[in-house]
């Protein structure tokens, strides 16, 4: 089992910046990938960015490329630096973990609201 605790959401004006943090605890050695996802009201959850357990960036959503940066500080801490925020970035942001041997992300943080006003 892995527990994920997120922090760092909030409200900002268009063009501003926020940084999200996610700390994993428990059996962290099962972690293969960590990633950030978001879900806006009335929409499905979408992937934002993913890294593997070495911190190598695997992908970014096209909508955030050049503005967001995912990074892994150590074996259990994940960040998402969000710059040049737009109103369409408003969503609940979730940290997720995919464990070795699985094809899906199965552990999730509690979610952090990010609101960008125009």
Q: Evaluate the radius of gyration.
A: 13 Å
Helix/sheet category: mainly beta
Instruction: State the share of residues found in helices, binned by percent.
Output: under 10%
Run of helices and strands? EEEEEEEEEEE
Strand content: over 45%
What does the overall shape look like? globular
Mean pLDDT: 96
Helical segment count: 0
Calculate the terminal CA-CA distance, rounded to whole Å. 40 Å
* Uncertain runs: none
How many strands in all?
Answer: 11
The major β-sheet equals:
7 strands, mixed
How would you describe what is shown here?
With 118 residues, the chain is mainly β. It is built from no helices and 11 strands. The strands form 2 sheets. Strands 2, 4, 5, 6, 9, 10 and 11 form a 7-stranded mixed sheet that branches. It has a 4-stranded antiparallel sheet with strand order 1-3-8-7, with no helix packed on it. It is globular. The N and C termini lie far apart (40 Å). The mean pLDDT is 96.
List the helices and strands and how they pair.
Elements: E1 2-7, E2 10-13, E3 18-26, E4 31-39, E5 46-52, E6 57-60, E7 68-74, E8 77-82, E9 91-99, E10 107-108, E11 112-117
Parallel strand pairs: 2-11
Antiparallel strand pairs: 1-3, 3-8, 4-5, 4-9, 5-6, 7-8, 9-10, 9-11
């Amino acid at each position: 089992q892995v527990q994920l605790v997120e922090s760092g959401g909030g409200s900002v004006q268009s063009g501003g910046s926020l940084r999200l943090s996610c700390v994993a605890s428990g059996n962290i050695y099962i972690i293969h990938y960590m990633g950030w996802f978001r879900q806006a009201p009335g929409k499905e959850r979408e992937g934002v960015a993913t890294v593997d357990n070495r911190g190598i960036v695997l992908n970014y959503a096209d909508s955030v490329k050049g503005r967001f940066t995912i990074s892994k500080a150590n074996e259990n801490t994940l960040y998402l630096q969000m710059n040049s925020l737009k109103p369409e970035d408003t969503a609940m942001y979730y940290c997720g973990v995919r464990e070795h041997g699985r094809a899906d992300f199965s552990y999730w943080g509690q979610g952090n609201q990010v609101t960008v006003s125009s």
